[in-house]
Each structure stands twice: as structure tokens, then as C-alpha cells.
């Protein structure tokens, strides 16, 4: 009996891992999603070729290219996360037999946790692949010396920034903020999917909310309404597109406490999003 008792936790962990892998496979196995990912990487390869052919190996240009690529890939990662994660609960709501049997076998609570883990894993993987490829591209074309240099022309002109940090520090901060952005976005899409009855409703709601935050952020800056600008500077669209390098916030991000508020806000909001989505899923949809 003691040996059997010791095996029970391992068996339960095996069920959780199998459920997690099952949910992760559901998110990535559809041809449309793979086509969207392939299109993003093709677009990236074209951009790399254009930048590499025009490179004059000037440190300032390398920094501008790096930050512009990271901004583009922050946007592409967000769009792929919305597309991939929007149907996370659609199988149960559309009464697909495979999903219903899996949920019945493992319970709704474990299924909801497995879906959350799958969404987070997929989101972080997308961002890591895109930004990691940017790092390798910049390193291969311009070399490792640029990571120790500060923002110079044409980076300052092209990005409209007076940021005085090194290129390596800017990349590290961007990667850190990108992780927070995709986690926050994954939680929001997870919650929207739980409250939506079709993948289209979830994707449309996430996409509209994503760009509305960008509009409100821009409006806060242009209208001089600082509360709106401060509030929406923590939204996934601003973090994922790495707009902290642009005026008027660059010195505040690195000189103040803004950078350290991001993980705190991300953890709190994600907890609310995932808890809300889980509670909604545990109730039978009407």
C-alpha cells in the first residue's frame, strides 16, 4: 500500500502533463495557424535581407534596425498569440466530441489549468523565437561591438529618442518587457475565450482591445492627458511594440520606477484574467 501511495502523485503528474501536451497540440496543429506563422517568418526573412543589403555597419544604424525589428516582432507575436489562443475554449463550447471526452475524463478544473499552461507556453515560445532570431541577425551582420555602445545617430533620429543606455541594455529591457506583454496578452485572450462562444468573438475582442489601447495611449500623449498616457503605457500593445524608447517616456522608464512596475502589474492582471477565465469555464455556458 505504501508503494501504491507513492505512485499516486507520479500518476497524477503524468495526467497533468498529458493534458497540458494535449491542449498545446490543439493550439498549434491547425493548418491555418501554421500558415500564419510561416507568413510571419517569411516577412521577417525579407526584412532581414533588405536590412543586411543596406547595412553600412554603423553602430547607430544597427541599433535602429534592432529596435525597429523588435517593435515589428512584438506586433507580429501579439497577432499570432491572438490567432492561436482565441479558440482555446471553443472546442468545449462547440461540443466537439474529442474535447468533451477529454474534459469529462480529467475534470473541468484540470482542463482549465492545462489550457492556461498551454497558452502561456505558446505565447512565450512565439516571442522567444522571434526576438532570439533578431539577436542572432544583428550579431551576425554588425558584430558584438554594438552591444556596448549607446544610442547614436541614426538611431536617435529614426526612433525619435534621446535614450542614453547601451544597445545591450536596451535589448535586455525590451526582451523583459516583451515577456510581460505576451503574458498579459495571453491572460486577456484566455479570459476573452472563456466568455466567448466562438473563436471569432474572442479574436475580434482581443484585436479591437489591443489597438484601442494604442489609440488611447497616443491620445494621452498628444492631448497632454497624462493619466491616460501613464495608464495605457502598461498595456500589451505599448510593451510588445517597445515604445518605451520614444519621447516623452524614455528617461522615465530607465530613470524612474516604471520598469519595475511592469512585472507587478503583469502578475496582478494575469491572475485576475486567468482566475476569471477559469471561473467562467467551470460554470456551464448558457
From TrEMBL:
<feature type="transmembrane region" description="Helical">
    <location>
        <begin position="228"/>
        <end position="245"/>
    </location>
</feature>
<keyword id="KW-0812">Transmembrane</keyword>
<keyword id="KW-0472">Membrane</keyword>
<feature type="transmembrane region" description="Helical">
    <location>
        <begin position="202"/>
        <end position="221"/>
    </location>
</feature>
<feature type="transmembrane region" description="Helical">
    <location>
        <begin position="116"/>
        <end position="138"/>
    </location>
</feature>
<feature type="transmembrane region" description="Helical">
    <location>
        <begin position="64"/>
        <end position="90"/>
    </location>
</feature>
<feature type="transmembrane region" description="Helical">
    <location>
        <begin position="257"/>
        <end position="275"/>
    </location>
</feature>
<protein>
    <submittedName>
        <fullName>Uncharacterized protein</fullName>
    </submittedName>
</protein>
<feature type="transmembrane region" description="Helical">
    <location>
        <begin position="175"/>
        <end position="196"/>
    </location>
</feature>
<keyword id="KW-1133">Transmembrane helix</keyword>
<feature type="transmembrane region" description="Helical">
    <location>
        <begin position="32"/>
        <end position="52"/>
    </location>
</feature>
Amino acid at each position: 500500500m505504501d508503494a501504491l501511495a507513492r505512485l499516486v502523485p507520479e500518476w497524477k503528474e503524468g495526467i497533468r502533463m498529458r493534458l497540458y501536451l494535449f491542449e498545446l497540440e490543439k493550439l498549434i496543429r491547425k493548418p491555418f495557424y501554421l500558415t500564419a506563422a510561416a507568413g510571419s517568418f517569411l516577412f521577417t526573412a525579407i526584412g532581414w535581407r533588405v536590412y543586411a543589403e543596406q547595412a553600412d555597419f554603423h553602430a547607430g544604424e544597427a541599433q535602429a534596425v534592432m529596435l525597429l525589428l523588435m517593435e515589428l516582432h512584438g506586433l507580429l507575436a501579439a497577432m499570432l498569440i491572438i490567432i492561436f489562443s482565441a479558440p482555446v475554449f471553443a472546442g468545449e463550447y462547440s461540443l466537439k466530441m474529442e474535447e468533451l471526452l477529454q474534459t469529462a475524463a480529467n475534470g473541468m478544473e484540470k482542463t482549465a489549468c492545462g489550457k492556461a499552461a498551454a497558452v502561456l507556453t505558446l505565447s512565450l515560445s512565439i516571442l522567444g523565437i522571434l526576438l532570439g532570431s533578431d539577436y542572432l541577425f544583428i550579431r551576425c551582420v554588425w558584430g558584438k561591438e554594438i552591444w556596448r555602445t549607446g544610442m547614436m545617430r541614426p538611431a536617435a533620429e529614426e526612433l525619435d529618442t534621446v535614450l542614453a543606455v547601451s544597445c545591450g541594455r536596451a535589448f535586455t529591457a525590451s526582451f523583459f518587457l516583451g515577456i510581460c506583454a505576451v503574458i498579459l496578452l495571453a491572460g486577456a485572450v484566455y479570459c476573452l475565450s472563456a466568455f466567448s462562444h466562438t473563436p471569432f468573438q474572442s479574436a475580434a475582442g482581443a484585436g479591437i482591445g489591443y489597438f484601442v489601447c494604442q489609440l488611447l495611449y497616443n491620445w494621452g500623449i498628444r492631448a497632454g492627458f497624462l493619466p491616460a498616457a501613464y495608464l495605457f503605457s502598461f498595456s500589451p500593445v505599448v510593451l510588445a511594440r517597445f515604445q518605451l524608447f520614444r519621447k516623452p517616456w524614455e528617461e522615465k522608464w530607465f530613470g524612474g520606477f516604471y520598469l519595475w512596475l511592469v512585472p507587478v502589474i503583469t502578475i496582478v492582471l494575469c491572475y485576475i484574467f486567468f482566475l476569471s477565465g477559469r471561473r467562467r469555464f467551470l460554470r456551464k455556458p448558457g
